[in-house]
Design goal:
The complex is a heterodimer of chains A (448) and B (749). Chain A contains 15 helices and 12 strands. Chain A has 448 residues and is an alpha+beta fold. In chain A, the strands form 2 sheets. In chain A, strands 1, 2, 3, 4, 5, 8, 9, 10, 11 and 12 form a 10-stranded mixed beta sheet that branches. Chain A starts with a helix and ends with a strand. Chain B is built from 31 helices and 20 strands. The chains are: A alpha+beta (448), B alpha/beta (749). At the A-B interface, helix 7, helix 12 and helix 13 of A face helix 9 of B. Chain B: Belongs to the enoyl-CoA hydratase/isomerase family. In the central section; belongs to the 3-hydroxyacyl-CoA dehydrogenase family. Chain B: Keywords: Acetylation, Fatty acid metabolism, Lipid metabolism, Lyase, Membrane, Methylation, Mitochondrion, Mitochondrion inner membrane, Multifunctional enzyme, NAD, Oxidoreductase, Phosphoprotein, Transferase, Transit peptide.
Chain lengths: 448, 749
């Protein structure tokens, strides 16, 4: 799937954007100052695409855009659950997509912000002058996660390889018991605390006093905004995908707006019976791939592209993986704003990764609390909350789905598209990730 | 040592004064909708106890809640983070004049909880933190229990460890709630049960996860959350949405069916009784009374059961055993405090020299407290063995699920194993646990002082070498101190800290702080040969050797000592300590104190060492130790040695009882002498050191409490009789004689 997506990037048409080449210096309608700094390379997002995020079970993709084969210097992909056979999935995907086998590729992993890491690695390569054009992306196959044999079975099988005589082999085979055969399923659980993410999210919501109703309302909001965006054709980063042996899929298939009554009927999924996190107010795990083409501004313009946005400052943060597992946005947002010299009110577009409705609400409450800012963040006063009129207006992970490794690129591409559509200048992406980590990035609109 | 260890987990029952205020200070309530939230908070203490004031206010509040028509149900919760109710107020029990008064106290408690049990409005106990003794009895009288899954939430009936029984309905309600076997297990061991286990046992109905930081601190928010959930439960029960009678599982039904046979029940009583007798040698009355109360309740009905409970409670409270155990409990609390104040500098890096059993043991109890620990040895093989010991200790905890494998690995990252002195300049304290030889100790001290900072404390772990002799070569004697750990370090609670005249107060404060961090019970004693613990043990072991020479079989010797209440017999103890160590100590102290430390011939021990019988570690000592075999046989070759050194027993002082008192009186006399000479600061530390370090019978509460309860005059009388036969080894010391002359003189008030 990832290779097909790359393929589509490769065949991205160039012709129409030549005209825009000279528009670079013309002042835009927005009066805010640009974040460009002397001596720092401008790095731009040229294009972003993704497959529809599908509920586990379907796969496929069709072409849409293209990139000249030799223009890309490097390829970086993010993924979370790695298939043993394709441990460097970026390389396999690149070759499968017909990119030159002379382009190196590597894979990064950082839980839910893996593709953010892929993008920022690309930014780093370009800023350092190593590369001019990098494809960054993310891919996740939740419908085919590697399931391991039990440790006992693995040990027996490995010893079997070493066994020399038939007698040794037979005695090893004879030692296999029923217990050997039970497989190990990968779980969305923290290694350090053995707590599943949903359980942690439920505790987080409770810690911030987020009610079930608040969570359900936010989930309904996400689904209805996504539905509206889909119907208005705003989700233009989606490219159709042919599922082998089935139909072409061209839409995210997890968007299901429902009523509050229906939402209220669901039983808690993790903490029973008094928990508040349900299947309906959590993001669902899907297959999906996303990719972006990142270039230095000169290179993009030289090649005749019309960049979509500047990628500006970004930060990574990390905190206690037990009790603050999903508070990444609270910590990363003020930090990235400080770096960029902006304030919360300067931002026109917010795209936060919605892992759980309870997690988003908890983050919003944490950002609105002086006590939390003073006690845990070492700040004098609260971070402040983003305006809901600017927040995840085209749906989010709750409604579109959440292929771990691919969500980051979707967030950035959505910000770029929304800035263009809504006429804003600055956008902010923030996300949390397993391990108690978090990320935020400031994106600036490219002058129209 | 089970008895000694068991004492270590004594619950936190605590003493306090009551405020004489008319307004309610301990219990208050607030009505939320149709649910009354009853909050307990003792303003004068860190924990809640069922004191007179608490009970009085609770009865008042309950009355108001029952009378309020707007209230349909209630939640009982503590406002203290980490404590629901830690138990009854011990001082209230001790203040009673006689058994009848205590029995009356018990009946009042029973009555109050009976009203709670029969409450027309369901009461939900919301438990966060310790729920022990009377607290647990209160909780199980309620209709429903919600508990937080926090590590601090523990439920249990620790009364038995204070020589008491659960006297407010516990012996009657627990068997009904968790079944006979589990109830006996809880009440006879007194162990703490964590919330998740309690849920499985049926002791708790509903669990709540502890929360992290939110808009309040984690502790506060967790209590609020617990309250919210408990209110939902209370409302659910009142509306009949939550059933109180749970559908029993198949196993439960089968168990109930089996238990319905009197024959089966009788078999259980018999088995449990047998076990108790075997473990306690009948020296502790409380476990037997617990069995009696449970049996009476089950077989003759609640009226007889509750009566038996209150009367036995009254009787137990006035036994010397209970007084001894409560004394130990108070002593333990006192020895968990640093009377030297806060040290100027916290020890963040601790270096340990010698990765043997002792060194690695010290590392094991240090590294998991977040202290960076350097373990240094001179040989790679020794270091590897030591590191493996630390790993194994942590891994065993992982297997028992008290820590996760991730925590194990992250704890181990605090441990650095090395063969050189690299990084010692950062050490705040160095503890040496090298071989007990003054020359080696001197060499090590000089090496260390050459590499460490001037602020670094040098602690020496020795069981007998005087600290001032070791400190003689030090450039900074004010930074030298003795820290005598007991093996195995992770199991034995005691730490004996030895100060010289030159040791600075800050050095002592720092050593105590480190010991407390390691979870130790600490006594601080003066310097001298054998300090306190080794010095008390040596004469008793010398006497034990003489008893063996007089023809008493090691097994018989063990039986005599354990029957007196020692958790480990004298012969076994010698094997555990190591015959070579015992010989070494006997010789050293013999030189220092002369004939008073005589008795058995040191050559018996030396011959054993020469033949390789060094005790358990060498596989042979008084007994033969075979790996995997639990039955230990007397070492057949020891007979020849004892034959060679045979002494004639004097029948006048060789009855079983006389042998026991010969062993004990020498121990006790030496302890009193330590107090007389100022080695000991106070009798309390003497009792704690003897019980927790040497296994002095807990039922007697330590040598000083033993003198108080047995009578100094009676002890002196016995000693005079032994003195007539054996000489000055049994001459009572002056302080003991003073107490014998004046019966109003007591070590413990």
């Amino acid at each position: 799937m990832a290779s097909m997506l790359l393929n589509s990037m490769r065949s991205c048409s160039v012709s129409h954007s030549w005209a825009m080449r000279f528009g670079k210096m013309s002042s835009s309608s927005v009066s805010k100052k640009t974040l460009a700094r002397p001596g720092v390379k401008n790095i731009v997002l040229v294009e972003g695409v993704r497959t529809p995020f599908l509920l586990s079970g379907t796969t496929g993709l069709l072409n849409r855009t293209g990139v000249p084969k030799d223009a890309v210097d490097y390829i970086i992909y993010g993924t979370v659950i790695q298939e043993v056979k394709t441990s460097n999935v970026a390389r396999e995907a690149a070759m499968g997509a017909g990119f030159s086998d002379k382009i190196p590729a590597h894979t990064v992993t950082m839980a839910c912000i893996s593709s953010n890491q892929a993008m920022t690695s690309a930014v780093g390569l370009i800023a350092a002058g190593q590369c001019d054009a990098v494809v960054a992306g993310g891919v996740e196959f939740m419908s085919d996660v590697p399931i391991r044999h039990s440790r006992k079975m693995r040990k027996t099988m490995l010893s079997l390889n070493k066994a020399k005589t038939l007698g040794q082999k037979l005695s090893l085979i004879g030692s296999i018991r029923m217990a050997h055969l039970s497989p190990e399923l990968p779980a969305v659980a923290e290694f350090s605390t053995a707590e599943t993410m949903g359980h942690s999210a439920d505790r987080l919501a409770a810690a911030f006093g987020v009610s079930r109703v608040e969570q359900d309302e936010f989930a309904v909001r996400s689904h209805s905004l996504a539905k509206k965006a889909q119907e208005s054709g705003l989700l233009e980063d989606v490219i159709s995908f042919k599922v082998p042996g089935r139909d072409i899929v061209s839409k995210d298939n997890g968007i299901r707006p429902s009523s509050m009554e229906q939402m209220a009927k669901l039983k808690p999924a993790f903490i029973k019976p008094h928990g508040t996190v349900t299947a309906a107010n959590s993001s669902f795990l899907t297959d999906g791939a996303s990719a972006v083409l990142i270039m230095s501004e000169e290179k993009a313009l030289a090649m005749g592209y019309k960049p979509k946005a500047y990628l500006r400052d970004f930060v990574y943060v990390s905190q206690d993986p037990k009790d603050q597992l999903l508070l990444g946005p609270t910590y990363s947002t003020p930090k990235v704003l400080e770096r960029a010299g902006l304030s919360m009110s300067d931002i026109d577009v917010f795209e936060f990764h919605e892992a759980f409705a309870g997690q988003i609400m908890a983050n919003l409450k944490a950002m609105d609390s002086d006590w939390f800012a003073q006690t845990y963040m070492g700040r004098k006063s609260k971070v402040g909350t983003p305006s809901m009129d600017k927040f995840n207006l085209w749906g989010g992970s709750l409604s579109l789905g959440h292929p771990f490794g691919a969500t980051g690129c979707r967030l950035v591409t959505t910000v770029a598209h929304r800035l263009k559509k809504e006429g804003g200048q600055y956008g902010l992406v923030a996300a949390c990730a397993a391990g108690g980590q978090g990320h935020a990035m400031v994106i600036e609109a490219y002058p129209q | 040592m089970a008895g000694v260890r068991a004492l270590g987990v004594l619950s936190r029952l605590s003493a306090k004064r009551y405020a004489l205020l008319t307004a309610r200070t301990h219990v208050n309530y607030e009505v939320k909708g149709d649910v009354a939230v009853i909050r307990m908070n003792d303003p004068n203490s860190k924990v809640n106890t069922l004191s007179v004031q608490m009970q009085k206010e609770m009865i008042e509040v309950m009355g108001e809640v029952w009378a309020d028509n707007a209230v349909n149900s209630a939640v009982l919760i503590s406002s203290k983070p980490g404590c629901f109710i830690a138990g009854a107020d011990i001082n209230m029990i001790q203040a009673c004049k006689d058994a009848e008064e205590v029995a009356k106290l018990s009946q009042e408690g029973q009555k109050m909880f009976e009203q709670v049990e029969k409450s027309p409005k369901p009461i939900v106990a919301a438990i966060n933190g310790s729920c022990l003794g009377g607290g647990l009895e209160f909780a199980i009288a309620c209709q429903y229990r919600v508990a937080t899954k926090s590590k601090k939430t523990v439920l249990g009936t620790p009364e038995v460890m204070l020589g008491l029984l659960p006297g407010a309905g516990g012996t009657q309600r627990l068997p009904k709630m968790v079944g006979l076997p589990s109830a006996f297990d809880m009440m006879l061991t007194g162990r703490n049960i964590r919330a998740d286990k309690a849920k499985k046992m049926g002791l708790v109905d509903h669990l709540v996860d502890p929360l992290g930081p939110g808009l309040k601190s984690p502790e506060e928010r967790t209590i609020d959350y617990l309250e919210e959930i408990a209110i939902e439960c209370a409302r659910g029960i009142a509306n009949k949405k939550i059933p109180l009678r749970k559908e029993k599982g198949r196993m439960q039904k089968i168990q109930d069916y089996i238990m319905s046979f009197e024959l089966v029940r009788n078999q259980i009583y018999k088995t449990v009784h047998g076990k108790v007798m075997k473990q306690s040698k009948g020296l502790y009355p409380a476990p037997l009374k617990i069995i009696e109360c449970v049996k009476t309740g089950v077989e003759q009905g609640p009226t007889a059961g509750y009566l038996a409970e209150s009367q036995n409670f009254g009787q137990l409270a006035k036994t010397t055993e209970s007084a001894a155990l409560i004394g130990l409990y108070h002593g333990q609390v006192a020895c968990k405090k640093n009377r030297f104040g806060t040290p100027e500098k916290e020890v963040k890096t601790l270096a340990i020299l010698g990765a043997g059993l002792m060194g690695a043991g010290i590392a094991q109890v240090t590294v998991d407290k977040g202290v960076h620990t350097i373990l240094k040895d001179t040989a790679l093989a020794g270091l590897a063995r030591g590191e493996q010991q630390v790993y194994k200790g942590l891994n065993d905890k992982t297997k028992k699920k008290s820590i996760t494998s991730f925590q194990r690995d992250s704890i181990l990252s605090n441990l650095t194993g090395q063969l050189d002195y690299k990084g010692f300049e950062k050490a705040d304290m160095v503890i040496e646990a090298v071989f007990e030889d003054i020359n080696i100790k001197h060499a090590v001290l000089k090496e260390v002082e050459a590499v460490v900072s001037p602020q670094c404390i040098f602690a020496t772990n020795t069981s007998a070498l005087p600290i001032k002799e070791i400190a003689a070569v030090s450039k900074r004697p004010e930074k030298v101190i003795g820290m005598h750990y007991f093996s195995p370090v992770d199991k034995m609670q005691l730490l004996e800290i030895i100060t010289t005249d030159k040791t600075s107060k800050d050095t002592t404060a720092s050593a105590v702080a480190v010991g407390l961090k390691q979870g130790k019970v600490i006594i601080v004693v003066g310097d001298g040969p054998g300090f306190y613990t080794t010095r008390c043990l040596a004469p008793m072991l010398a006497e034990a050797v003489r008893v063996l020479q007089e023809g008493v079989d090691p097994k018989k010797l063990d039986a005599l000592t354990t029957n007196f209440g020692f958790p480990v017999g004298a012969a076994t103890l010698a094997d555990e300590v190591g015959i070579d160590v015992a010989a070494h100590v006997a010789e050293d102290l013999g030189k220092a104190f002369g004939s008073r430390f005589g008795g058995g011939n040191v050559d018996v021990l030396k011959t054993m060492v020469d033949l390789g019988f060094k005790g358990r570690k060498s596989g042979k000592g008084c007994y033969v130790y075979q790996p995997g075999s639990k039955v230990k046989e007397v070492n057949p070759e020891i007979g020849d040695i004892l034959e060679k050194f045979k002494m004639a027993a004097n029948p006048a002082v060789s009855s079983d009882s006389d042998v026991q008192y010969r062993l004990v009186s020498r121990f006790v006399n030496e302890a009193v002498l330590c107090l007389q000479e100022g080695i000991l600061n106070n009798p309390l530390e003497g009792d704690i050191g003897a019980v927790f370090g040497l296994g002095f019978p807990p039922s007697h509460g330590g040598p000083f409490r033993f003198v108080d309860s047995f009578g100094a005059d009676k002890l002196v009388e016995k000693m005079r009789r032994f003195e007539a036969v054996y000489g000055n080894q049994f001459t009572p010391c002056q302080l003991l004689l003073d107490h014998a002359k004046n019966s109003s003189k007591k070590f413990h008030k």
